[in-house]
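A.,

Following up on our hallway conversation. Structure tokens first:
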């Protein structure tokens, strides 16, 4: 059966979030909508600019006020595309590095 190593995934996300948080400007907020197994375990107190997706909003309504979407292979990519806003994908996170403040695929 499939099992998630939540502790290991939490640590990986924490490291990513620290890097992202450092790159964000004062006027930027990076909202994240993680899988519930991980999202329920994350503590966002360590980050100045990263917040959990607000549960009081329906996902698609909230996306209408977002400036950009960073996603995996989720179908939300196509839904957000109809809004004609910026979006980016990261198909293999192990091949992405931060160079001069930008995420770049290796």
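Then the amino acids I'd put at each of the 106 positions:
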């Amino acid at each position: 059966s499939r099992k998630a190593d939540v502790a290991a995934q939490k640590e990986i996300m924490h490291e990513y979030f620290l890097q992202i948080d450092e790159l964000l400007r004062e006027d930027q907020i990076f909202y994240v909508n993680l899988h519930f197994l991980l999202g329920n375990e994350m503590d966002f107190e360590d980050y100045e600019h990263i917040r959990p997706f607000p549960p009081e909003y329906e996902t698609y309504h909230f996306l209408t006020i977002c400036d950009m979407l960073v996603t995996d292979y989720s179908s939300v990519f196509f839904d957000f595309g109809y809004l004609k806003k910026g979006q980016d994908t990261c198909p293999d996170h192990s091949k992405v590095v931060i160079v001069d403040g930008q995420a770049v695929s290796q």
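The chain has a mean pLDDT of 78. Curious whether your intuition agrees with the design.

B.
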